[in-house]
Design goal:
By secondary structure, the protein is an alpha/beta fold. The protein has helices at about 15-20, 25-30, 70-90, 105-120, 125-135, 140-150, and strands spanning about 5-10, 10-15, 35-40, 55-60, 95-100. The protein is globular and about 40 Å long.
Length: about 160
Amino acid sequence: MILQAFEVYPRLFVSDWRVAASEEMLERLGVGLVVNMAEEVDDPEPRTLQGRVRFAKFGIWDAGPQHLNFDERALVVRRVHQAVEEIQSGIAAGPVLVHCNAGLSRSVVTAMAWLHRHRDMSWEDAEKRLLKNHPGARLHNVDLRRYVQDWLPGGGARLL
C-alpha cells in the first residue's frame, strides 16, 4: 500500500495513521510535530526519531454532532481548538503532520480550522485549498465541520 501525505499548506501535511507510524515518511517530510485527531488510534513513537518528532493527541471520534450530547460536543470543539493552537506553535519549528484514521475528515477539518484561524482564510477558501491539495479528502462528516466552524473562536457561538 502506498503511503501518502498531502501538503495542504506550506509545512502542513494531512494523512492517515500509517504515515504517522512510518519513520521513513516522517523523516522524508522533515516532520517535527505529529498531531493525532483520531481517538481510536494511538501514535507509536518511532525509536529512531525520538527527540526529533513530538507526538500530540487530540483524539475525537468520527461521529456527527447529532450523535453527541452537549458536553461531548464541547469536548470535540476544545480538542480541535487545542490542536489548531498546537499546529500554530509547531509549524514555526518545522513541518507538521495532522492525521486521523483515514486522513479524510477529522484531520481535514482540523487543517481547515487552522487555515481559518491562523491564515485568515474563509472557511470556503480553506475547504477549496484542502480539496485542491488533497483530492481524496471527503468531508463526509459535514456536521463535524459545521459544529467546529460555529463554535471555534471567531465563529458565531461562544463555548471556549
